UniProtKB/TrEMBL annotation:
InterPro entries: SAM-dependent_MTases_sf
Species in which this protein is naturally found: Actinomadura viridis
GO biological process terms held by the UniProt record: methylation
Keywords, sorted A to Z: Methyltransferase, Transferase
Name the UniProt record assigns to this protein: SAM-dependent methyltransferase
GO molecular function, one term: methyltransferase activity
Amino acid sequence: MTAKGHDRLIEHYRSLQARWSVADRSADYAPLVVSKGNASEPIHGWFHFKEGFSSHLLSRLFKDAAYVPTNKISILDPFLGSGTTLVSAILMARDLGCDVTAVGVERNPIIYEVAKAKVASALRGSSLLGAIASVEGIFWKEFERLKSAPESLTTPSTTLNNSNYFAASYVRSLLSLNRATRVISEPEVRAVFRACVSAAVEPSAKLRRDGRALRYVPDRETIEPIGSFRRSLAQVSEDLKGLSPMDDARIEIVHGDARDLDLLGRTERFEWIVFSPPYPNNIDYTEVYKIEAWALEEYSNAAEMKKQRLKTLRSHPSIRFPDEYHYKNNDHADEIDALLCPLLESVPSGRYERGRRQLILGYVDDMLRVLRSSRKLVARDGVCAIVVGNSVHGSGEDSFVIAADLLLARAAEFAGWSVEEIRVARHLSRRGAGVAYLRESIIVLRAD
């Protein structure tokens, strides 16, 4: 990218930012937009979801809005992830003695399973312990039966079958653990057991999630899955002790698409919408969490995994998505083109040009659909808080920043929201240190 092109993009971002109140709130929010600390929290720590945010973020958002729920917490998270928003809302409502109505939507099948288990457990509390204890015997009996016939414990996953990544005996244990959960008839209990299987997968592999990919670590010490599973199940029981059930809560977890919230068929309006969408970078979460998905047999072949990848938000260029852009048929099409033009012109020519242009267009198009869908579901004067990070693409003179916080704030206005504030939560110091607008922010929107 030429110096002139770089200056034009920065000036475009500067002009956009001048539209709104932008505050550096890193002192308050830096530890809250990352998942560090969740591992030691009851329920929140059951599965390591690297891309999550803190279990304390919701209470901070409420505090800054001077919002004190008295009768009910009403909240929607269209990118539920591993369930942090809803679990936080449930635990908070229990402490305050109020009701909670919440809906969470998640596209990734394995993360959806984990969220379902955590949310159900937060709701049912100690009342779930008896149900868990009552099925342990039949579960382990089925596990032993499956293990006794190793010839049937096969998987089409090339990753799980790679002996550099997984010991063959570990793969058989994971498959046996997962298949043994099928004898559990109660869905919520089965979800808890499957979440424990999920938590045992990465520790058993010489792979680790590192930024945008799974990295091979040949000298990594692995953990035998059965022991890991037992420890996870014991932690579940420990966390649920003394946790009273919330019988009147109305909670729904949907395996669906945040771009099509109309399909939820909801009639009520939510006071809060809180979410963190995938950032416009190079992270394909279907790929990053594929070993758990294969171990839990969410896919029967590679074609099914590819189909899942194509269903995801267009936040990465690692797969060729269709060149279809809904905003082109929208009343604001010309304004959106003007919003994106300086960024598109900054994309350097070369082998990555098409993928990067597709990423920019697809991401904003998809997020505009999310913002429109969510706007229909918010109560009057309701709040939407979006945690999103900006990203650097390319290197050297060809590098450019996708300022997602500014792009989404403007897209939100096209979708009928008012931008109350952009809170800079964290200044990023990864690749591209010192680059303007490289940050993680919380966009606070209002429904006037």
